[in-house]
Design a protein that fits this description.
Immunoglobulin-like; single chain; about 25% helix; Dna Ligase, domain 1; alpha+beta; 9-stranded antiparallel beta sheet; about 450 residues
Length: about 450
C-alpha cells in the first residue's frame, strides 16, 4: 500500500512538472513572441519584399526593385543597385520594433513633426501587399525617431536607421564596384602600369602568360586580380567630370574579356585627395575609390606572378637519407625504422629525429623570396642540403649562398634559375639543433646505462 502511494505521488509530481513546463513556461514564451510581434514595425517578410520606394519630403523619389539577378535602381536613374546595402537595410528594418506607441490625432501630427514629414518608406512584397512608414522630421529626447505606419492614428518611436536610409543619395544605392560582371566568364586579363604591360590567358583550367609560356604562373595570384576587381567598391560617382575619362597621374589600366564580356578600367590618382579615380566601360561611369584601391597591382611586374612554390615541389614520402653541407657543419642521416641515425655512427653525437623529420616538410613548404629578371651567375652557393630515396636516387637538392641584409641566392635541382631566398626560411631548418655534440653528463649517463645492460 505504501509503495502504491509513493507511485501515485510520483505521478502527480511528474504531471505537475509537465504542466509547469508545457503550460506556464510555453505560455510565457508565446506571450513574449506575441508581444514582440505586436511591436514589430514591418509585418512583411524580408525575403518577399520585391520593391522599395523612398519618397522624400523634397518630392524626390528613389525606387528599387528586386530581380532574379539582384536589386536594381529604377528611379531617378536606371542602373544596378548595391545588393549588400539594400539587404542590410531590410535586415535592420524587418527586425525593428517600436520602443513606444503614442496615440495621436489631428494636430498631434504637427507636434510630432509629420507636417511636413521627412519622407515615406514604402515596401511592396511579391503578393502586392504594401506597407508604408512615414518618418518624422523630429526626434525625441532619447534620439529616437517618430514613425507613423500605414496612416494609423498611432505614433511609434524607433532607431534612426530609417533616417539614414531615407536620406541616402541615389548614387549610394548604385553598384559602385570596379567590375560588376561575373569573374567566372573571364578568360583574358590585360594589365598595364608604370613598369609595363602583360597578359594572362585562361586555358584548360589554368592561367598562363602568353609572353612567358615556359613560366608556371601562381594561379591564386591571378585569381586575386579578379577578386580585387569585383570587391573594390567606390565611394561616389563623379558625374560632373567631362569629357569621359579622369584627369590625373595614371596608375593602372585593367582590361577583362571573356564570354560576352569586354570591360576596361582606367585608374588615375587625384593629386589633391590621393583618391583613385576610375573610369569604367562599357558602363561609362567615373567613380571615386579609396586611395588604397588595387595598390599592389600598380607596381607588380609579370615576374611577380611566377609560382613561388615551383622550385620546391618534390615527393617527400620516400626520403630515406639527408645530406647537409654548410661552412660550419656537415652530416649525413639515414632513416632506420622510425628514427634517424648518423652515418657513419658517432657515439659523441646526438640526433634529434623529430627535427630531422621536420626538416623535410620545411623544405617542401619553402617559397621563393624573389625571382631574378636576369639570372645571377656569380653567386657563390656554399651550402647545400640533399634528400635521397632508396637506391641512393636524388629527390631534391637545394644550394644557397651567404646572406646580405637577410637575403641570399639559392637554386634547386627542380629549377634551372637562381632565385632569392630569405634567411628566416633557412634558419628554420635548424641544422644546428638536428645534430649536436653529446653533453658530458649525457655521455656519462649513457655509458652507465650500457655497462648495466652488459652486466645483465
Amino acid at each position: 500500500m505504501k509503495n502504491k502511494h509513493i507511485l501515485v505521488l510520483s505521478g502527480l509530481v511528474l504531471v505537475l512538472s509537465l504542466y509547469a513546463y508545457f503550460g506556464e513556461y510555453k505560455r510565457e514564451i508565446n506571450e513574449e513572441v506575441s508581444k514582440k510581434e505586436a511591436h514589430q514595425i514591418i509585418n512583411l517578410k524580408k525575403d518577399q519584399v520585391q520593391k522599395i520606394e523612398l519618397h522624400k519630403g523634397d518630392t524626390s523619389s528613389i525606387v528599387l526593385e528586386r530581380t532574379v539577378d539582384g536589386w536594381n535602381v529604377l528611379k531617378p536613374i536606371q542602373d544596378q543597385a548595391d545588393n549588400e546595402i539594400i539587404e542590410a537595410f531590410l535586415d535592420q528594418i524587418t527586425g525593428e520594433t517600436a520602443v513606444d506607441q503614442i496615440e495621436a490625432q489631428g494636430t498631434d501630427l504637427d507636434q510630432y513633426g509629420f507636417k511636413p514629414s521627412l519622407g515615406i518608406v514604402v515596401l511592396i512584397d511579391n503578393a502586392k501587399r504594401r506597407q508604408e512608414v512615414e518618418i518624422s522630421s523630429k526626434k525625441n529626447f532619447e534620439g529616437l525617431v517618430f514613425l507613423r505606419r500605414d496612416h494609423e492614428n498611432k505614433i511609434l518611436t524607433s532607431s534612426a536607421t530609417w533616417i539614414s536610409f531615407l536620406t541616402k543619395p541615389a548614387d549610394q544605392f548604385r553598384n559602385l564596384r570596379l567590375f560588376r560582371g561575373s569573374i567566372s566568364k573571364i578568360n583574358l586579363i590585360k594589365l598595364k602600369n608604370k613598369f609595363g604591360s602583360f597578359d594572362f590567358r585562361y586555358n584548360d583550367g589554368f592561367w598562363f602568360s602568353p609572353q612567358q609560356t615556359s613560366w608556371k604562373i601562381d594561379q591564386n595570384a591571378v585569381r586575386q586580380i579578379l577578386t580585387e576587381a569585383i570587391t573594390s567598391k567606390g565611394t561616389s560617382i563623379i558625374s560632373e567630370t567631362k569629357p569621359y575619362g579622369p584627369v590625373g597621374a595614371h596608375l593602372l589600366t585593367l582590361e577583362l574579356s571573356g564570354e560576352k564580356v569586354t570591360w576596361k578600367g582606367l585608374l588615375h590618382q587625384d593629386t589633391k585627395t590621393k583618391d583613385v579615380i576610375g573610369a569604367v566601360s562599357p558602363e561609362r561611369m567615373i567613380i571615386r575609390f579609396p586611395p588604397q584601391t588595387l595598390e599592389d597591382l600598380r607596381t607588380q611586374k609579370l615576374i611577380d606572378f611566377r609560382d613561388k612554390l615551383e622550385p620546391f615541389r618534390f615527393q617527400s614520402d620516400d626520403v630515406v637519407k639527408i645530406v647537409a653541407r654548410t661552412p660550419l657543419k656537415s652530416f649525413t642521416l639515414i632513416r632506420k625504422a622510425e628514427s634517424w641515425h648518423l652515418d657513419p655512427p658517432d657515439k659523441n653525437i646526438v640526433i634529434n629525429s623529430t627535427l630531422a623529420e621536420d626538416l623535410i616538410g620545411k623544405l617542401k613548404r619553402m617559397t621563393v623570396y624573389g625571382f631574378q629578371e636576369t639570372n645571377t651567375k656569380n653567386a657563390i652557393l656554399d651550402s647545400e642540403v640533399e634528400l635521397y630515396e632508396e637506391n641512393n636516387r636524388l629527390i631534391f637538392r637545394m644550394s644557397w649562398s651567404q646572406f646580405t641584409d637577410h637575403v641570399g641566392f639559392a637554386k634547386t635541382n627542380l629549377f634551372n634559375e637562381t632565385f632569392k631566398i630569405d634567411d628566416a626560411q633557412v634558419n628554420r631548418l635548424m641544422f644546428h639543433e638536428i645534430v649536436k655534440p653529446m653533453l658530458p653528463e649525457t655521455k656519462i649517463h649513457k655509458e652507465q646505462k650500457e655497462e648495466k645492460s652488459e652486466k645483465n
